[in-house]
Amino acid sequence: MTNHRPAYSDNELFIFLISRERKHFEVIYTLYSPVIYGFLIRLGLAEKYSEDILQQTFITIWNKPVPIVSNNKLSFLSWIVQITIESTKKYLENKGRKFIIHQKSYPSVSIEFTDVLEHECKVQHIA
């Protein structure tokens, strides 16, 4: 039986970011980029969108002030998912897409593209 316990605690991961050391950031990227990319793909985003958003998410993670974590109330994954959702919103807005993000809690997040319906109606109306 394998142990699924993370190699690092949430506090250690936040400390890695505070240290601003490239080797620590590489650890975080290695651990979380597949998780975030998979999350974006499961949202129904195209691979190109997912790759771009993944890149923007990690740029934001590197540049964003690290939250002060008291009593372990904020998980590292929750923090990264929130940044990913914000990066997704910005990316889609910059692409001119119309959408609604339905968010309860990770992994219960979905995107509804409202411009697809508008586009389909316009195409049917023209034809």
From TrEMBL:
One of its GO terms (molecular function) is sigma factor activity. It comes from Chryseobacterium formosense. It comes from the Bacteria. One of its GO terms (biological process) is DNA-templated transcription initiation. This is RNA polymerase sigma-70 region 2 domain-containing protein.
